[in-house]
Design a protein that fits this description.
Shape: globular
Largest sheet: 4 strands, antiparallel
Order of helices and strands: HHEEHEEEEEEEEEEH
Strand order of the largest sheet: 2-1-3-4
Number of strands: 12
Radius of gyration: 21 Å
Structural class: alpha+beta
Helix content: 10-25%
Number of helices: 4
Length: 189
């Protein structure tokens, strides 16, 4: 506990000595780090192979490439990620949104369930409990059918019927919507 307090004191002294705002510390490095999949200020330690990667997709691409022995290929169990490394100060730590050492926000969007970070919040990420993963597009624009597991665009209608299984999905929203024709084209993709 004393070590953790010392980190906090050192960070506070750094912030005061540089005469910068707490918010600017949180925003340090915004947009400067990440990979081709996500902009974020941390890397993950893959629990399956104990190696460090920018994200789960980077891990899966490397560990499932044709150069890897088929018996050694694997995906990272994303829900089991327990450690992240801050891209600004290289501190390895438990999964959390704010670095325990330098105080930077490692991802503006952060999901504790998926251990997922992303600085590009224009994607309107949200966690779908029914699917067990984070999705993009805004929760208000989608529905999850708990009968068949289908996840699709929301049709603005007081009584929505799942186009896969016919289940009634009594979900009401007053914002953006799509037409039934658009939804059916989306499903057939």
């Amino acid at each position: 506990m004393e070590l953790e307090c010392n980190f906090g004191i050192q960070r506070l002294e750094l912030v005061e000595s540089l005469n910068i705002e707490e918010d600017s510390v949180m925003e340090s490095g915004y947009g400067d780090f990440g990979c081709r999949h996500y902009r974020r200020r941390c890397k993950i330690r893959a629990p399956c192979c104990d190696e460090i990667f920018d994200c789960r997709h980077c891990h899966n691409e490397k560990k499932n490439s044709m150069e890897v022995d088929p018996l050694d290929r694997h995906d990272v169990p994303r829900h089991k990620i327990a450690k992240v490394i801050c891209s600004l100060c290289d501190t390895e730590q438990d999964v959390q949104q704010k670095c325990r050492n330098c105080g930077v926000c490692m991802g503006k969007y952060f999901c504790t369930k998926c251990k997922f970070f992303d600085d590009d919040v224009s994607k309107n990420q949200y966690h779908c409990d029914g699917c067990g993963i984070c999705r993009t597009g805004g929760e208000e624009n989608f529905y999850h059918c708990y009968k068949c597991g289908f996840h699709a665009l929301f049709v603005q209608n007081p009584s929505v019927i799942c186009l896969v299984c016919g289940n009634s999905l009594m979900k009401r929203f007053g914002s953006s919507a799509t037409t039934v024709g658009q939804l059916q084209r989306f499903i057939s993709m």
